[in-house]
């Protein structure tokens, strides 16, 4: 497995001390995060849109494959077909309350993946990618829901980006204040931020208990779920 | 004030029913969210990076001004100077556990702002923008910390994007399942997601209580803060 970052484009310049070269950390972030921001050239101007994603470390690309998908009617995904894209995944972990504006910051983890978005044509790879995306949101759910119809599959585009050319940047902890500022101002620190889930909410057609896959996911994200809710 | 979206580029195509045209909703999202993803052409390929931001609704642009900043040494912000950029701000509000993969989704709010990034040269506008960015993270904090030095200001670039050409897309609630799927599968719904704060953590140079600005911000984000912590 190649170390991060194999090219000049993904070798961090500034704040390189925040760069990480451990692919396991990249994979952990991509496993935790829910949304990717995909950037592309929309025809003379850059466009950035949020989208669901999933990673297959055993995918066809050497260092794993990142999948995104969208409607065949969506302009952005048609612009992304076969094009250079940037897929950026960020988790915000805290607010850094420094003693100067210059050192004020946020704690975060950010992965930047650059590559060409390959249109996934193979039916098995497409279905696997779609299942991975459902399971990325609610692990195990792909096996519990209705299989896609031909019409649904025809309306869905799946794109694959190799997980090869990637960088990971992480900031954590308190501020990097100057000694003089610490002497002058008695407090600097950070506010940790977390994502938590509330209890699952059934729609108006729901009857019976929250299914196990949904309950487990909500609990994993910190929700308290009544057994009979 | 112009309604959203004034141009064809920001007029939503697909899922237009999720589009909003109320600028107050856009402003509320930009007020809540902490991070923007900025997309630009990095020289033949798109690049998307997360960054802090702030909005000045009374800024020099007709519908308000969105500010971002970065180090004068950062490659991305030099590529953004005077260039077309896309600033996308997303909050994830839930996981939608549908009865099919096709209807599986997330709840979210996304603002997409397109425009040219103007380099802010005026000293007063620069300082105001930097204060807004500090206060966006911790309201009131800009007034409580050390003012920037000349050296710090020289190392910081501030860019302004007009809040004119913008779109807002919102998804909320449960799945849009087909009637047949609801009949076949007794449960569909969503898992609400929230961001919450933990108690502020002072750095090793801290002595004395958490200052009011930091305590209020943590409490506003759901933290329980001891008066003497």
UniProtKB/TrEMBL annotation, chains A, B:
Entry-linked Pfam families: Pyridox_ox_2
Family matches, as Gene3D superfamilies: Electron Transport, Fmn-binding Protein, Chain A
Protein name (Swiss-Prot/TrEMBL): Pyridoxamine 5'-phosphate oxidase family protein
Record organism: Nocardioides islandensis
């Amino acid at each position: 497995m190649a170390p991060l970052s194999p090219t000049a484009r993904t070798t961090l310049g500034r704040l390189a001390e925040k760069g990480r070269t451990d692919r396991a950390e990249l994979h952990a972030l991509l496993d935790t995060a829910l949304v990717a921001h995909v950037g592309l050239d929309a025809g003379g101007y850059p466009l950035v849109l949020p989208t669901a994603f999933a990673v297959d470390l055993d995918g066809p690309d050497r260092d794993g494959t990142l999948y995104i998908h969208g409607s065949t009617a969506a302009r952005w995904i048609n612009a992304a077909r076969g094009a250079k894209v940037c897929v950026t995944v960020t988790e915000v972990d805290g607010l850094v309350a420094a003693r100067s504006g210059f050192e004020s910051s946020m704690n975060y983890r950010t992965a930047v993946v650059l590559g060409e978005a390959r249109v996934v044509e193979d039916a098995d790879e497409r279905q696997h990618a779609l299942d991975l995306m459902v399971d990325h949101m609610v692990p195990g759910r792909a096996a519990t829901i209705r299989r896609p119809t031909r019409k649904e599959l025809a309306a869905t585009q799946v794109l694959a980006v190799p997980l090869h050319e990637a960088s990971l940047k992480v900031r954590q902890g308190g501020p990097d204040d100057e000694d003089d500022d610490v002497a002058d101002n008695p407090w600097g620190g950070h506010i940790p931020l977390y994502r938590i889930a509330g209890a699952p909410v059934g729609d108006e057609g729901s009857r019976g208990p929250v299914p196990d896959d949904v309950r487990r996911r909500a609990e994993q994200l910190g929700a308290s779920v009544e057994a009979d809710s």
